[in-house]
Every structure is written in C-alpha cells, then in structure tokens.
Amino acid sequence: MAPLHVVFWILVGSCVVTWILSLVTREYSWVDRIWSIVPVAYVWVFAVGAGSANGRLILMAVLVTLWGARLTFNFARKGGYARGGEDYRWAYLRERMPRPLFHVFNLLFIVCYQNVLLLLISLPAYTAAQHPSALNALDGVLAAAFLAALVGETVADQQQWNFQQWKKAERAAGREPSVRFRQTGLFRYSRHPNFFFEQSQWWLLFFFGCVAAGSLWQWTVIGPALLIALFLGSTRFTEQISIERYPEYAEYQRRVSALIPWFRRPGEDLAQLR
Questions:
Q1: Integer Cα distance of 178 and 271 in angstroms
Q2: Where do the domains of the chain lie?
Q3: Kind and range of the H or E element at 231?
Q4: What is the crossing angle of helices 55-77 and 38-50, to 10°?
Q5: For residues 142 and 60, what is the distance between their CA atoms, to the nearest angstrom?
Q6: Please, what's the largest Cα pairwise distance for the chain?
Q7: Alpha carbon distance 88, 103 (integer Å)
C-alpha cells in the first residue's frame, strides 16, 4: 500500500477511536493523548516507504521522534494519560455550552479538525519523499535549529513544571503561593515560550520539504499555518481562564510578549518566584 494511503487510514482510525473513547469515557482529551505519537508514525511511514536512500526523510523522522518522545514524557508526568487527565479547558467549555452543541464541537473540532491537523503538519515528509535528493548544508542548518527549538521547549516545560511543583509544596504546607503563575526564566520574555518553540519545530519541518523540492512554494504550508491559528485560539482561551483566576495576569499580559520572546515593556514588576 502506498504511504499516502497508509497515513490516510491511520487518520481515519485515529478519528474513529478518539471519538468513540470520548463518548464512552466522557473525557475529551483523547486527541491530546495521541498528539505526540501520531505525527511520529506519519513521518516514519513516509521514511520507510522511501527507503534508506532518502537521508533527508530519515533525518526528519529522527527529529520528529525526538520531538514526540520529549512531549510524551512531559504530558505523562503531568498526568495526561491517567484516568481523569482531561484538559481543564474542555471541562471549562463543556460547562458553558449546551450538551448537544458541545458534542458537535467535540466531533468536528476536537476529533476531526485536530486529527487532520496532525496529518497536515507531517506532510512535508510527503514532499521530501516526492523529491528525493542528497542531504546538503541547508539540512544541517535546519536540523540544528530544530534541536535548538527542542531544547528551548524542554527548558520552558521544565521551568513550568518546577513552578507547579513549588506551588503544590506551598499549598501542602498550608501557605498560599506568593506567585500564582510563572513569570521568570523564559516566561519573563514570552507568556508562552513552549508554544513558540513548538510551532518553530513544525515550520522547520516544513522547510525541510522546501529544501527537498527546491522551492518555498509548497502547499504543505497549510499545516504549520493552521497550527499557528490553533495555538492563537488556544492561547486566547487559556488566557481568558487565567484572567478569571488571577486578575493580576492582565498586567503580565500588558508587559510580556504573548508568543515570540521579547523584552518586557516598562511597568511595575509583579511578585517574583524566589
């Protein structure tokens, strides 16, 4: 079976399984649970289909595997795979939408749209498979940039993890945390540095396909472009919840870049984590 047919059936299976599981368990984070796994499978399908002679595709598959392993580890330690590990944003939204409307939202957006997006961001591997050529210096630059973004996302997630563990320890000791959300480290320069590095990696994968084809004009740009749209909507929704919980978050929004790490705007510093 052709690789494109294989990934299509993986997509169909992913949609069916995650939708059924969401109905049976009444948890709606099943796509989140395969988010770091399915793209790895897609890219390796193209790499295996092209054979060992396509060094660029093997390199892309290895890089995406590193991305998936890191993200899977971070998701697992936060309890994402545990029973009841549903994303709090879906629970928040479910409480505010009529049940029939939420079920439509679940099928069309959470299940279908997000699963299709996971395939679309992987399709630069299809471009590389269609245009086999030898690795060159540009591939080396892109690989180095991808690894740098991977390190950046790892650091951001670790800083957030350390902060959340500190908050838990403070509450366990009967103290209210003096700081209610992370504002230091990479979060001093971007409110969502992990989002920035995540998107960067998928744009870099797109550029691998461009190098293979010898042109930036590739229809597979739709994948990283839609990923940005998804993250923008997700960021807006997440920050709406944050402001409801922490009114001081509005000042943090005013002072710190939403996504791209940048210098803080002038203003009064909020309390900082020790």
A1: 7
A2: 3-255
A3: helix 222-245
A4: 160
A5: 10
A6: 62
A7: 17
On the CB side of 17, CA atoms within 13 Å amount to 13
**Size of the chain in residues:** 274
The verdict on pTM exceeding 0.90 is: yes
Q: Which helix (H) or strand (E) holds 113?
A: none
By the 8 A CB rule, do 35 and 115 touch?
no
Question: What average pLDDT does this structure show over 95-118?
Answer: 95
Ordered DSSP codes for 49-81: HH-TT-HHHHHHHHHHHHHHHHHHHHHHHTTTT
Q: At what angle do helices 137-172 and 193-213 cross, to 10 degrees?
A: 160
The 10 Å Cβ neighbour count of residue 202 is 23
pLDDT, tens only, 112-171? 999 999 999 999 999 999 999 999 999 999 999 999 999 999 999 999 999 999 999 998
State both tokens at 185.
């480290």
Amino acid found at 262 = W
Tens of pLDDT, residue by residue over 39-76, are 999 999 999 999 888 999 999 999 999 999 999 999 99
CA dist., res. 217 & res. 60, Å (int)? 19
